[in-house]
From TrEMBL:
UniProt KW keywords: DNA-binding, Repressor, Transcription, Transcription regulation
Source domain of life: Bacteria
Phylogenetic classification of the source organism: Bacteria, Pseudomonadati, Pseudomonadota, Alphaproteobacteria, Hyphomicrobiales
A Pfam family that the UniProt record links to this protein: Peripla_BP_1
Segments forming domain HTH lacI-type: 11-65
PANTHER family named among the record's database cross-references: HTH-TYPE TRANSCRIPTIONAL REPRESSOR PURR-RELATED, LACI-RELATED TRANSCRIPTIONAL REPRESSOR
UniProt name for this protein: LacI family transcriptional regulator
Amino acid sequence: MSRQGQKQNKITLLDVAKHANVSRATASLVVRKSPLVGAETRLRVEAAMHELGYVYNMGAARLRADRSHTIGVVVPNLTNPFFAELLGGMEASVDAAGLVMIIANSGDGPPRQATVLQRLREHGVDGIILCPAAGTTEELASQVERWKLPLVQALRHVTDELDYAGADYVAGIEEAVEYLVSLGHRTICFAVHGPIHSAYQERVQGFRDSMRRFGLQPELVIRVPDHLDQIAQQADALFAQGSAPTAVICFNDLVAHGLAAGFYDRGLKIGRDISLIGFDDVADAEAMRPRLTSVSTAPSEIGQKAAALLLDRIAQPTLAPRRWIIPTKLHIRNSCGPLSSS
């Protein structure tokens, strides 16, 4: 068939309206999921769309409404299972609103992040959810103001002038320290990794403040490598700082998995010889043996809240900046035990 013939045979919204015996305006309301259309009429129009094979022309709608019905989501690492759960929560809210996500990876670097943000703007996204790369400055707020583009910070924040959805990292670390102290542990180490950003700083500050409150050594913070196999190889470093720790709190579950392997190689039994707590409580925590005690930061819920903030910001650009902090919860499993007297 010729290109002209294809164009002539293309099903239009007017064809759908005639087939369903409604006005074109009513058919348009159905396509745009307007609540103004009754259930029976909606079903009739949707049936006509299905029978005729009608496909909604989003590009044409965008030109008419100056909206792309897409949002950009920028995260620093797509391989971490934590971000998969975060994106799943966002997608549920975004999909319910009739929008589509464009997902990008900043590699946790400001130069790459700047490139990604520019490309999202070129694609005409209606707004952006950004987990700021380490090193992002407060200038982000003035950039967003110049762009006239709704933007929500997620997990990390660099400015109070933009919306933010994240977890109560300080409370999560404090609960972990309190639990270990209740088991009799006094020499507790905090194993951290990765670049420094707001979530990193809040975790470290929560650990130090909580340790001081119990009269314990607040400086037992040690950095481990980023890769799982390298973390395992560096487990010995935890025992090279004077008195060996009897318990370790980890920056995230990835660090906990790496140290668990290192402790196994060292001949230590987790939960008996040393206690171990993760952070984020992603699905892998249940898969580890013994099952990993971990602080849940509810990434799926953070994703939902970040999406809700962005949808509100798109609808009402003049809203005052809002912060949505999700409470954390310590999920106790089998990787911690009382301090051994031996």
